[in-house]
Amino acid sequence: MRARLVVFPVRGRNWCFSTSLQPSVSDSSSSHSPSTFKHLWSIISTSHGKSSTSKAEVLVDFASNKMDKGWKALEKAPEGSFKNKLHGLGLWLLSRVKPSEIFLKSISKDVNGVEVIYPSSLNARLVRRRLRHIAMRGTIIHKKYFYGSVTLLPLTTVFAVLPLPNIPFFWILFRTYSNWRALKGSEKLLQLVSDGSQTSSSTTINGDETQRDVFVNNGEKLLSSWVLKPSKELEELLHRGDEEDGLSKTAISDICRVFDLETNDVLKYRAST
Questions:
Q1: Is residue 42 part of a domain?
Q2: Does 37 reside within a domain?
Q3: pLDDT, tens digit, for every residue of 175-188?
Q4: Centroid of chain to Cα 100
Q5: Which residues, in sequence order, are CB contacts of 67 under 8 Å at separation 6+?
Q6: Containing domain of residue 174, as a range?
Q7: Where are the transmembrane segments (predicted)?
Q8: How do beta strands 246-247 and 210-217 pair?
Q9: DSSP state of 161
């Protein structure tokens, strides 16, 4: 699976990193994840040769599916009901999640290559350096947050005695899952953009619009796992909406429409400090 990354500055030193997977590619990992506790136990108990990381992935997929089903049930709750209010609270909490975390979570374990789209005026080395930085930073931050969330999980069980849904427990459970996914995404992205750290040269394909790094290892040319695509269209959209305090919301909406990005996530980059 190849993921398409769109990278561009939104305000000052704030850059947007967003992902839109190619429509023809579907992530089939959810279809193989266990749907019941019995199925989950069967998979874990029979996977003696698998690593602890693989078993943790199965647990995370199982918890993710359960949370998705619960969230969809809240979405369908009648207006004004208690479940509908819980859904509103959940939306507010999700709005507090940093956009970089959402971006890193989108890099799944099935991604084996990235196509990086960026404004044609930017230097390709700077774009790669920024991608490596956000990936390396993610491995540090989300590992720390993951262990912190795991530590807090047992403490939230004390709220189970209340005659209300244990919201702190489910929120910390979600944060545990989210930080785990962001950590794995960081490691995967770092692996992809650091692929072929040997002496590199650059070749151009499809005219001057697409650049693919070629690395030389003992005289043998190796194609990198990333494809760099400077975009004149993205450059024009940036100039069209450039203001003193960053890109205008209209320009961001246009970019999101053209490159199939989530507008709210991109706006978070603009508002971040």
A1: no
A2: no
A3: 998 999 999 999 99
A4: 7
A5: 170, 173, 174, 177
A6: 2-27+77-271
A7: 145-174
A8: unpaired
A9: G
State the helix-helix crossing angle for 167-193 and 124-156, rounded to 10 degrees: 150
Distance CA 141, CA 187 (A): 12
Distance CA 5, CA 188 (A): 14
State how many domains the chain has.
1
pLDDT, tens only, 146-174: 999 999 988 888 877 777 677 888 888 88
Length of the chain: 273
Residue 66 domain-assigned (yes or no): no
If one compares 62 and 246, the residue with the highest pLDDT of the two is 246
- The amino acid at residue 91 is L
Question: Which string of DSSP letters, residue by residue, matches 167-227?
Answer: HHHHHHHHHHHHHHHHHHHHHHHHHHHTS--SSEEEEEETTTTEEEEEEEETTEEEEEEEE
The predicted model scores a pTM of: 0.76
For every residue of 29-66, DSSP letters joined together read GGGGS--SHHHHHHHHHH-TTS-HHHHHHHHHHHHHHH
Domain contains 67:
no
The number of angstroms, rounded, from the C-alpha of 235 to the middle of its chain's C-alpha atoms is: 24
